Input
Amino acid sequence: NAGVTQTPKFRILKIGQSMTLQCTQDMNHNYMYWYRQDPGMGLKLIYYSVGAGITDKGEVPNGYNVSRSTTEDFPLRLELAAPSQTSVYFCASSPIPGTYEQYFGPGTRLTVT
Amino acid sequence: LAKTTQPISMDSYEGQEVNITCSHNNIATNDYITWYQQFPSQGPRFIIQGYKTKVTNEVASLFIPADRKSSTLSLPRVSLSDTAVYYCLVGDSSASKIIFGSGTRLSIRP
Output
């Protein structure tokens, strides 16, 4: 099993550009999450999904969108990138339901200039 | 979701036992306590989870007193590779989302 994979590993965006961060898991987990982590800080939940076709906002959803068309994939879309979105983005998944044991991807380091 | 309080940082030496305490005064009856470890430039990694008394696995032990208002993560005989940030999380296992705090930055010296 590859676990949770994320692409790209690094990306530099100009202000106003858009991009999609890809996340795929091969563990057949229903629950998937997107977090951002600013330097020296803890993780903040952006969006999460409890299954295909179901998504919900986390703590900091503004400026982002998600979709969940399959169990495996949970892409995060940034529209009109801003410098405040410079961060490391982590995708995670967990089995249903009843555990906080999340499996994290390696992260995407995004810089918006 | 119950709020947690952890020390911002801790230092120790190789071979020592390290105990990191987390305070969670508002823990609810159905809440579990979960600890994660994060190395620089990596995603967090699940360490251990417990509900009451003591839980032990190959990596750590988790001690939870009867009132469950705090918990202690114990790392036996630490090495340099245990230098990381450790997060304590508390919440209902049926909840869809969890909240990470700022964590405890543990530094191990030779």
